[in-house]
Amino acid sequence: MSRIVQLTTQIFSDKAAQEKAVEMIKKRDHNEMAVLFPDTHVEPLFAALSELPVPIQARSYAQGQGKLKAVEWAQELGAKVVEQWTIVDGVFTADPEKVATAEIIAQLNYREAQELASAGTGLLDREALALAEELGVEIHIRSIHQSASGIGTVIDAEGGDKGMKAVSAVSDVSLISITGIAFEGVAGIDATAFGALSNEGISVKLVSQASSERSLGLVVSQKDAQRAVTALEKAFEGVRGTAIKATEGLTILNIVGRHNYALERAIYELRRNNVWMHLIANSVEGHQISLVIRGTNEKKALEVVHSALLGQYKRLNVFCFGKGLVGGTFIRQVLESGEHVKEKRHLDVRLIGMADSTKSLFSPEGLGEQWKEELSQSTTSNDPVAIVQQLKDSGLTNLVVVDNTADENLTSYYPEFVKVGCDLVASNKKGNAREQAFYDDLRKLLVRKGKTFKYETNVGAGLPLVDTLLQLHHSHDRITRIKGVFSGSMSFLFNTFSAGDRNFTDVLNEAQSSGFTEPDPREDLNGMDVARKLLILARTVEVKAEISEVSIQNLIPEAFQNEQPYEDFKSCFSALDDHYAAVKSALKQDEVLRYVGDLEIDPSGKALLKVELATVAKSSPLGGIQGSDSLFEIYTEGYGDHPMVIQGAGAGAEVTARGVFSDVLRLG
């Protein structure tokens, strides 16, 4: 196929690059003489091209005209292809300096390429592309860094696959807003505005008009903004109720290509990442969508939209609080599962920061296996206020804050994380068990900001309980009762104690050493852990309640309920053993002890919440559980007297961390 070849200025002005390009072309085209058209004033080069008439008079042309002249000479010489040789690999799906995951577009049609040229892609020239489309001349963009046979981007009539092709940005623009109560139904308002700007030589990049005809939005270069306002004020002088203002520091985000859901997905993801739009416009042909955003959000917006519409992977940027049993296991699981999650879920989950009880660590590119050493060497405090600001200033998209602590103070900062664009995932129960007003306000904020709070592991470790309850509740199958063994640690304690002849405190020590209980087991024995879980389930199905409304049976006899250190509390173990030996001796042969949470909801929505040590039959579902399993019986109007039963491992760092990881993945 006959070709015209053009060297871009970057290659022609670099002797080494120039020699490499010529050598590659000679090697491919067998040294037949033809011409290279350099985009510069200096003398042109000669190089080898096949199937062109020779000899050819070498020509030069004014700088900036190279792309158009190459197409014109292709017509003159009967060439069907114009090759544009450059130092980049082709046209990218986004500016690779702003979007690290940008990829080369293998093929574009003429119209898509023209839209990209208008949207600021410097490799492309709209006038040259229009002529190429008219003449049927293909344009091949090639790089000296590729092989001689490799083509970066082909522009032709077909354009390859349909769908989205690229996202680009035009920086430093201003939105001129023209409003007037006297505009409605009046002909010539648009003509007046455009005429005034045309007289000043000001080009309009985008136009938007309200259906009421009372307002008109015009996007111009920021350098022209004040002249535009002055010209428009003069043009509309004397028109009643007219107001003209300029909003500067904006960027046009252009989405090129056809996709039925592109606008919806782009707006949804931008909103989730705290990027708001001043104006939305769609090209008449439907090949381009333009969104006007604040210029300070340009890089973030490019990454968000590219990831949503064009990215091979969606990147989740995770900041993790807590590195204990659950937190440390979660971090390990994320790092070990990275490639698997990419392959199966098309998600790139990156740990961009973490904090323990004293220090924090932040790395926008992601932390690796050396995170423990890096955190130990960090001199940055774990101040939540500073971390909120750090995440806000980072410009990172799809931020997720994971709370694997038991810190109630940290939960008070949840709203601040949401305000700067973070989704929340927590194994920490204390946030959802705070006062009802905090719970309600946080939910309202999440809705307003388009963010999500996943907390499946608050109750039942990795069991699919919370999501199941939500689905039942949203399907209007009224939940009448939730009853079960909510705590894996208490399950282990009473399953083991009921089944053998061991002392109660011997089993308690085993539960503590196995990691089933808190370091101070009284935090489990006092019933608050189960009470919080019961309250969380009640609130999940929209029951309004406070922790003070839960009736709790403390498993520590009243005589031993004091603030003494745990080591001193151990002096009470003998009396504690005697107490539970008496409780156990009162059981019938077919009975066992279970520490049970029970939520009953009447038809009016009023609820009774209680936590108690119950005697149950061995043959019942609650009596049959073993080890550290949890079991939940969910009664609904639809299920009647036959509850839905969810049972499985209710404790343990591995299953809890896996549940947290699953919640993170669901945000993708």
Q: Care to count the β-strands?
A: 26
CATH superfamily of the largest domain: Dihydrodipicolinate Reductase, domain 2
Overall body shape: elongated
The second-level CATH architecture of the largest domain is 2-Layer Sandwich
Strand ordering within the main sheet:
3-2-1-4-6-7-5
CATH class of the largest domain: Alpha Beta
The major beta sheet can be summarized as:
7 strands, mixed
What's the average pLDDT?
87
Unreliable sequence segments: 30-59
Overall domain count: 4
Estimated helix fraction: 25-40%
Fraction in beta strands: 25-35%
List the helices and strands and how they pair.
Blueprint: E1 3-7, H1 9-12, H2 15-29, E2 33-38, E3 45-48, H3 66-77, E4 81-86, E5 107-109, H4 110-118, H5 126-135, E6 138-143, E7 153-156, E8 164-180, H6 189-199, E9 206-209, E10 215-221, H7 225-235, E11 242-257, H8 262-272, E12 277-282, E13 288-294, H9 298-309, E14 314-321, H10 325-336, H11 338-345, E15 347-355, E16 359-362, H12 371-377, E17 380-381, H13 384-394, E18 399-403, H14 408-411, H15 414-419, E19 422-426, H16 436-449, E20 453-454, H17 466-474, E21 479-485, H18 488-499, H19 504-513, H20 522-525, H21 528-540, E22 551-552, H22 566-569, H23 573-585, E23 591-601, E24 607-617, E25 629-636, E26 644-649, H24 653-666
Parallel strand pairs: 1-2, 1-4, 4-6, 5-7, 14-15, 14-18, 18-19, 19-20, 22-24
Antiparallel strand pairs: 2-3, 6-7, 8-10, 8-11, 9-10, 11-13, 12-13, 15-16, 16-17, 21-23, 21-25, 23-24, 25-26
Helix pairs in contact: 3-5, 4-5, 6-7, 8-9, 10-24, 18-19
